[in-house]
Amino acid sequence: METFFLSCWQGAENNVWQQMEGLEQHKTVLSDYLLAVFTHWAKSFAGISPEFEVLFERFEILTSLAFLDSAEKAQIEAALTNPASGNWFWMPVGRSGWHESVRVRLIKEIETQRMTKNLLGAGFSRGSEDHLKLSLANFGRIAARMR
Length: 147
Known about the structure:
Layout: H1 29-42, H2 52-67, H3 73-80, H4 100-111, H5 113-121, H6 129-146
C-alpha cells in the first residue's frame, strides 16, 4: 500500500512533488497530478465513467483503508482516544481528504450494508466490521485536519 501514496515514499518529507509548476500550493500534489493525467487518458477509452474523479477518489479511499489493515484494532482505538496522538492514527489520504463533497458521498457508499459486506468479504479491515468502522472514523479525523 505504501507505493500508492506519495506521503509514504522515502524522501517525501522534502516535498519534491510540490516543486512541479502549477502544483506548488496543492495539498495532494501527486494525487492531483495523476487525476489530471488519468482523466486525459480516460477520454480515449469507451465506457469509462463520466464521473472519473469519483472513481479515482474511490480507489484512493479504499487504498487508505487497506493501508490500515496492518494496524491492530486496539492500536487504532488507542490513537482515536489519545490526545497525545492527536486523536488519530496516521494513514495516507489522497484528494478525498480535502474534497469533502466526494468524500461524504463515498463514505456513505462504503457504510451501506451491501458495500460493507463486500469489502469485508474481500478481506478489507481484516474482515472485521469493527476494524472498518474504526478505520472510517480515523479517515474522517484526518480529513478534518486537511480542510
